[in-house]
Specification:
By secondary structure, this protein is of the alpha/beta class. The protein has helices at 23-35, 69-82, 110-113, 121-137, 146-155, 171-174, 203-214, 230-236, 254-263, 278-285, 298-302, 314-326, 328-343, 347-362; strands at 9-14, 40-46, 58-61, 86-89, 102-106, 140-143, 163-165, 189-194, 220-225, 246-249, 266-269, 290-293, 307-309. It is globular and about 65 Å long.
């Protein structure tokens, strides 16, 4: 009697940055979907603290920082011990020496495109070194958007042919429980934004637009999540009557963030550069109309399901806020279009396309 044994592809996943913002969302979403598949066996490498994305999967804890030479050598040692069919670095730090085949995810090139987001010349030099090394040693690169792939091809043309585009998703986040809206926001009409003060996030343009909007709309507030925005808001609204209509929430858990999205007049994301931009997708999935810019990958993410304004234009952004606040039929259309748009993206699809990259490189062993 014949018996068949299914041979799984063993994939070593660098999850050392699973607790970080941005790359952490990507890590959890992708790794959980990979673990649910029947054609791969995952091994997770995680930092010394924090939970593994998939607690029941094989997990190896490490001590060294991902961006250190010791961390690179530590990862190389683990590669030797695990002997995976493919290693996937979910961010651009790579083992030293690099294994083959090696897949590296590239989320953005922000410090290259906008050096002002990383004021330290030493940190920028280290960033460029690690990034350049990843481009050289990777067997394949996964860019999370076509725009990021285009940036790679323009700035590192030798890496263009080995770059594949695989989008991110937000369906895991949006499917989670929706918590209680903070009590003092019950019944309040508000726009939602994030308070990251980095230059690429362009919070200052939103604050200028809201100050002008507030001159004729006294019943709408701006809710900003992130304590880092406090000094910027204080300086820009020092002499403005609109200051009372801007409130900052220092931090929220995911369930409350989902509630903030779901009850907002709109989510406003005025960024100047994003490698993908998960927050607009999260907002659309949870029924919040989105106002964003025509910068970088953002039009690629939101399609025709959002109000897209020129980057850095506070006057047009003000008009977009006015349209949202004044036209309920527009809000309804954007809510419906946003849900449809968000449904196109799923982590299952991301995992499927990522495994296709693994299969492509595994043939080169």
């Amino acid at each position: 009697m014949l018996s068949w044994k299914v041979v799984l592809m063993r994939v070593l996943l660098d999850c050392r940055m699973a607790s970080w913002s941005g790359v952490g969302r990507y890590t959890h979403g992708l790794v959980r979907e990979l673990a649910a598949r029947d054609d791969v066996e995952i091994v997770q490498v995680v930092g010394s603290v924090g939970d593994a994305p998939v607690p029941e999967a094989r997990t190896i804890r490490v001590q060294q920082h991902p961006f250190s030479l010791r961390g690179a050598r530590e990862m190389a040692r683990i590669v030797g011990e695990v002997a995976p069919d493919v290693m996937h670095a979910l961010h651009f730090p790579t083992p030293m020496p690099a294994p083959a085949p090696l897949v590296v995810s590239m989320h953005d090139l922000t410090p290259i495109i906008m050096p002002e987001v990383m004021p330290s010349a030493l940190r920028r030099a280290a960033y460029r070194w690690w990034l350049g090394r990843a481009f050289r040693v990777a067997t394949r690169l996964i860019a999370v958007s076509q725009h990021t792939a285009s940036d790679i091809a323009r700035l590192y043309p030798a890496a263009a042919d080995k770059t594949r585009v695989v989008a991110e998703a937000a369906d895991d986040f949006s499917a989670g429980p929706i918590g209680e809206l903070p009590g003092d926001l019950q019944g309040v009409r508000y726009f939602l934004a994030f308070g990251n003060p980095k230059p690429n996030k362009d919070l200052s343009t939103l604050l200028r637009a809201f100050a002008a909007f507030s001159e004729t709309h006294h019943d709408v507030e701006l809710v900003i999540v992130g304590a880092e925005a406090v000094s910027m808001v204080a300086s820009m609204f020092e002499r403005s009557r609109a200051a009372d209509r801007v409130r900052i929430i220092s931090s929220v858990d995911d369930s409350v963030l989902r509630a903030l999205y779901a009850n907002a007049l709109a989510f406003v994301y005025p960024s100047r550069y994003e490698g993908f931009g998960l927050p607009p997708l999260e907002a659309m999935a949870l029924g919040a109309p989105v106002v964003t810019t025509d910068a970088a990958s953002l039009p690629e993410v939101v399609g025709d399901a959002a109000l897209v304004v020129p980057v850095g234009d506070a006057r047009i952004l003000e008009h977009a806020l006015d349209s949202i606040a004044s036209d309920e039929s527009l809000r309804s259309r954007l809510i419906e279009a946003g849900r449809v748009r968000a449904a196109i993206f799923s982590w299952a699809r991301t995992a499927e396309e990522t495994v296709a990259v693994y299969q492509e490189v595994a043939k080169q062993r």
